[in-house]
Every structure is written in structure tokens, then in C-alpha cells.
Amino acid sequence: MSEPQEPSVEPSLDEQIAAYQREFRDLDPQVEQVVSALGRLNRRMNVAYGRQVAELGISNAEWEVLKTLVLSGAPYRMGPSDLAKRLGLTPAAMTHRIDRMAGEGFVTRDRDEKNRVRVIVELTDEGRAKWLEAMRMATTFEEDLLQDLSSQERGVLGELLTRLLRRVEDAQPDAGGRLTDLD
């Protein structure tokens, strides 16, 4: 009979970096600390956001559509293929997502009056209200996350992260979407 195993716990950043250095001597520990911390922070923030939108009765996938429509500006309308491109989804995945959201009353899908072949997806008042609720929750979470940083530190951190983001965007201009559909 085997001994019961303790639940696996993610190693601390220091433990992870030490293990990497043991196995890969060319590792720069400062670089690894930044990259690993960003990766862990991103993963944990995504989980936190997912829990928040779930409290509102929507999925992360639905949140992404609401956000994209709001970012498009009033009147918050886009074609399904434009939505799919912005979200890095296949047309089939986008259709499935729009069907679900139209059924929930978050979006409408109608024929374009000027081009009857074209379909337009539009954010409803209910969809905009869900987006606003999610934004309020996210704002509270984000302010709590950054509470230990001064205004100046937040500014510097924002500038540094934006520089890193630009470098990745320049090196990987096609990496804005997803590798696979999440639906």
C-alpha cells in the first residue's frame, strides 16, 4: 500500500528559479524572476476575473465579447467575423458564442439594413449593464491589488510593463488572439 501523497503545491519563485538554475546554468535569475512573476500574476488574475464574472452569471468568453463590443464604441456594433478576428476565434466558435449570448439577452444579431447579407451583432442594454457590473468588480479588485504601490510606483510599473508588451507585440504581431478556441 502506498503512502498518501500531499497535495502538490507550486514552488515559490525562489524555489523555481533555484531549480531552473540547477538544471540550466545559463539562466539569468533576474530575468526569470520577472518573467515567472508576470506569468503567475497573469494566471492568478485570470482566475480572479473568472470568478468575478461567474458571480454575475457570465463566462470569461462572454466577458470578452462584451468588452470587445464596448471597445468598438457607440453604438457597440460589429460583424461576427470582425469580432472573431479581434478575439482570435474561428467563425464557428464565434457563432456559438453569439448564439449563447443572444439567448441570454446580452447581444442582438440582425441583418444589416444596408447590406442584407451582412449580420450585425449589437450590445443590448442588458449586456452593457453586465459589462458595467464586471468593470465595477474588476476596479475594486485591481485597486486592492495595487494598494501597496504609490502613485509614482504605479506609473513606473505601468510604463515598464507597457515597454515589455510593445517588445512582445513587435516580435509577435500575430499573437493577439488565442492559440485555440476556449469554447
Distance between the termini: 41 Å
The major sheet is characterized as: 3 strands, antiparallel
Label the overall shape.
elongated
Order of helices and strands: HHHEHHEEHH
Number of strands: 3
Oligomer: single chain
Residue share in β-strands: 5-15%
| Mean pLDDT value | 90
Low confidence ranges: none
Number of helices: 7
Which structural class matches the secondary elements?
mainly alpha
Give the C-alpha Rg.
21 Å
For the largest beta sheet, what order do the strands appear in spatially?
1-3-2
Helix fraction bin: 55-70%
Relevant terms:
single chain; 183 residues; mainly alpha; three-stranded antiparallel beta sheet; 7 helices; 62% helix; 7% strand
Describe this structure in words.
It is a single chain. Helix 2 (29-55) packs across helix 6 and helix 4 (80-87) packs across helix 5. A hairpin with a 7-residue loop joins strand 2 and strand 3 (119-123). The longest helix is centred in the first third of the chain and has 27 residues, at 29-55. The protein has a 3-stranded antiparallel sheet with strand order 1-3-2. It has 183 residues and is mainly α. 62% of the residues lie in helices and 7% in strands. The two termini are 41 Å apart.
